[in-house]
C-alpha cells in the first residue's frame, strides 16, 4: 500500500490520472471516517485528499423550489434511552430564502466548511455539525443530519470517471438515497462539488449548528462511525420494539454492554459504536461486529447491515456482510426514508414560489 496526501486539487487530479494510466488501483480517503481498513492495508495507491479550496460563486439566475419535507427518521424514548438525542425541535426549512452557489474541493473538511460559510452569512450545512469527514465523503455517502440529507443542497459534482475523463454530473443523475449515491459503485472519483446553499437566518443557523453538535457529542470519537444501519420498520414492528435504533437493540435486547474483543469494545455511551480502547486491531473490531451480527440473527431472526465501509478485507473475512439478504434490507430501509433532492420533478414546479440565487 502506498499513501499520498495531495494538498491541492491539481495534484490530486494528476495523481488520479497517472494511476489510471498505469492501471494502479486507487482508494480515496478524506478524514478516514466511516471506514474500517484491514490490518493488511489496502492494495494499490491510497490518496488522502487534502485539497481544501472553497469558492463562493455569484449568479443572477432565479430558481423555483419545493417545500416538501421528509418524514422524521429518528425515534426516541426518554425512559429507556432508545435514542439519546433528538432533533425535531431544531428542524426548520429555508426554502423561501435566497440561494447562493458555493463550490468546494472534495478534500474540504466538513466542520470547517460549516463554520467558514456561516461566518460568510451562508446557511444550509448546519444540519451536519458534529459529523467528521470531508465534502467528498459527505457526497459519496449522501450523509444525513436528522431529517436532512446533503443532497438537498447539492447542485452538481465534478468527477474523474473510470476512463480518466473529467465530467460534471448534475444532482438529477447522482442516484442519491438514504446513505447512498452512485459513487459507491460507479468507480468515479469526486474532485469537487457545487452546492446551492442559502442566505438564511444566520443567528438561527448558528444556534442549530452548536446545539446539534452538542447533542451529537455523546457519539464516541475513537470509533469509525455507526457500526450498523438502523432496523427497517418491518423488523421493528415484527419484534415489537419502540424504535428502529440498532443501538437500542444492541444495548437493551442483546444486552451487549461492555462486550469487547481485544481493545475493540462496544461503547457504553452509544451502543452502535465500537470504540478503540488503545490498541484495537481491525481484526478485533470485525470480531465485535460479527458477534453482534450473529447474536441478532440467532436471537431475533434479523440481519443487521453494516453502515461503515470495510476496506482491504478478503471476501472470506467479511462473507456475513456480503449476503444478498443484506442488500434487500438496505433497499427496504432506503424506501422507508423520504429523501428530497433538487431535481426537475420535485423542486422545480410551476406552482412553487421563486427564490433568487444571489
Automatic annotation (TrEMBL):
Residues 1-200 form the FAD-binding PCMH-type domain. The active site is at residue 307. The keyword Cell division applies. Its EC number is 1.3.1.98. One of its GO terms (biological process) is peptidoglycan biosynthetic process. It catalyses: UDP-N-acetyl-alpha-D-muramate + NADP(+) = UDP-N-acetyl-3-O-(1-carboxyvinyl)-alpha-D-glucosamine + NADPH + H(+). InterPro entries: FAD-bd_PCMH, FAD-bd_PCMH-like_sf, FAD-bd_PCMH_sub1, FAD-bd_PCMH_sub2, MurB, MurB_C, MurB_C_sf, Oxid_FAD_bind_N. Belongs to the MurB family. This is UDP-N-acetylenolpyruvoylglucosamine reductase. It comes from Candidatus Woesebacteria bacterium GW2011_GWA1_39_8.
